[in-house]
Specification:
The chain is of the alpha+beta class. The chain is built from 3 helices and 3 strands. The chain has a 3-stranded mixed beta sheet. A hairpin with a 2-residue loop joins strand 1 and strand 2.
């Protein structure tokens, strides 16, 4: 019997995360980096990726960085 739990492609996970959370993807040397708004957001994203895809956030993204504040 085949494994019914297939690992999602990183591109699919990235697209899903960006569509559901206030974040964006930055690319550094061809590797995806998660840019998040608040520390609480990255905690939610990490939990979502683990529960939904059974992978760690840093298995999908090279790194995660907080957005720089926008100066008025």
């Amino acid at each position: 019997m085949g494994d019914i739990h297939k690992v999602a492609e990183p591109d699919h996970i990235i697209k899903d995360v960006v569509g559901k959370f206030p974040c964006r993807v930055l690319w550094s040397e061809g590797r995806p980096c998660l840019e998040y708004q608040r520390e609480a957001d990255v905690a939610l994203i990490t939990e979502y990726v683990h529960k939904t895809y059974n992978v760690e956030l840093l298995d999908v993204f090279f790194t995660a960085v907080e957005s720089l504040p926008v100066e008025p």
